[in-house]
């Protein structure tokens, strides 16, 4: 279990993480979400003792990271897939990690096999693709068979097969009772992977809840109805003070949507009482992406204007200065 209490990190006058508290419990994959500059990477570095909090505290199963005698056996992490020395082979890199943490030699072959790198284990890490480097980083995180795992953007560079693999792999690790915290910008993938969410913006906690609760709270739900007696059903629903709207459907048909706190059962019973024939009655929920945009809109650090301003990453690559009036974090790295 990971427990953060009032974590704050300042770089000069800039606050990267601001009084942030949360818990990451075992048995579930917890997604760690936020816009660029939200403080996710800084928070993960503070969990691992790589950055010292300005104030506040974070515990790993009740201990600070610096107090762990064999860290790899308690918490494993992938923060940067390319930090491996390029001239070392995957096997040599993992063997060094195992020796430095007094781990058995056979743990190296075990994790290489788990991540699918056995056939290229003696190849220089510098020749690896980003996807292969991600797998090597995951192998390093698993080397000590820890109960707690942190992954920062683990699907970067992976092909579709690799993305499905890491998704099911993280879920399996959580099902074994491990604590799994994963940060990612791929919201569609997080919707499939994470059962719980921690969402931050500008270093502050925005929400911590189940993924389903987060989506429902932010975007609500809508019931879609197709019926040849649309006008009759709409009148019945409006008599019940329900909000309805009609939109064009396929093949010049019209579709009735019912918004608000109402279930398909209630709509179906109202239709049946009036003898209205239903061709479709389904509940539609917003996506994680829609909910995320709704709740983090005020926390986005960089905004494009009318499509004319390059995206932040593109702007940086082209040497375009930051958007006027936006404060940037000054520190040893760019946070995400």
From TrEMBL:
InterPro entries the UniProt entry points to: AAA+_ATPase, ABC_transporter-like_ATP-bd, ABC_transporter-like_CS, P-loop_NTPase
SUPFAM superfamilies: P-loop containing nucleoside triphosphate hydrolases
Short name of one Pfam family: ABC_tran
Taxonomy, superkingdom: Bacteria
Domain ABC transporter: from-to ranges: 2-227
UniProt KW keywords: ATP-binding, Nucleotide-binding, Transport
Alphabetized GO MF terms: ATP binding; ATP hydrolysis activity
Disordered as annotated region, ranges: 317-336
Family classification: Belongs to the ABC transporter superfamily.
Protein name: ABC-2 type transport system ATP-binding protein
């Amino acid at each position: 279990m990971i427990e953060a209490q009032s974590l704050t990190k300042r770089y000069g006058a800039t606050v990267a993480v601001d009084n942030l508290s949360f818990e990451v419990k075992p048995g579930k994959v917890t997604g760690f979400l936020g816009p660029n500059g939200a403080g996710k990477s800084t928070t993960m570095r503070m969990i691992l003792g790589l950055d010292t909090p300005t104030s506040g505290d974070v515990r790993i199963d009740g201990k600070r990271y610096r107090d762990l005698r064999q860290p790899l056996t308690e918490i494993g992490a992938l923060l940067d897939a390319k930090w491996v020395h390029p001239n070392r082979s995957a096997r040599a890199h993992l063997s060094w990690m195992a020796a430095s943490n007094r781990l058995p030699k056979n743990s190296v072959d075990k994790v290489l096999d788990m991540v699918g790198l056995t056939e290229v284990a003696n190849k220089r890490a510098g020749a690896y693709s980003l996807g292969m480097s991600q797998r090597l980083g995951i192998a390093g995180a698993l080397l000590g068979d820890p109960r707690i795992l942190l992954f920062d953007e683990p699907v970067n560079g992976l092909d579709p097969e690799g993305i499905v693999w890491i998704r099911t792999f993280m879920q399996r690790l959580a099902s074994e009772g491990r604590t799994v915290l994963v940060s990612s910008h791929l919201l569609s993938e997080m919707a499939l992977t994470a059962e719980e969410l921690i969402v931050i913006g500008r270093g502050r906690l925005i929400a911590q809840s189940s993924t389903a609760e987060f989506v429902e709270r932010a975007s609500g739900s809508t019931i879609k109805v197709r019926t040849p007696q649309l006008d009759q059903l709409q009148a019945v629903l409006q008599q019940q003070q329900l909000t309805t709207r009609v939109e064009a459907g396929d093949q010049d048909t019209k579709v009735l949507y019912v918004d608000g706190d109402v279930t398909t059962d209630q709509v179906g019973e109202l239709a049946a009482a009036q003898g209205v024939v239903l061709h479709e009655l389904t509940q539609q929920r917003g996506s994680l992406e829609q909910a995320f945009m709704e709740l983090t809109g005020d926390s986005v650090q960089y905004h494009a204007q009318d499509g004319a301003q390059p995206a932040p990453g593109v702007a940086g690559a082209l040497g375009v200065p930051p958007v006027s009036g936006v404060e940037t974090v000054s520190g040893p790295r760019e946070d995400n």
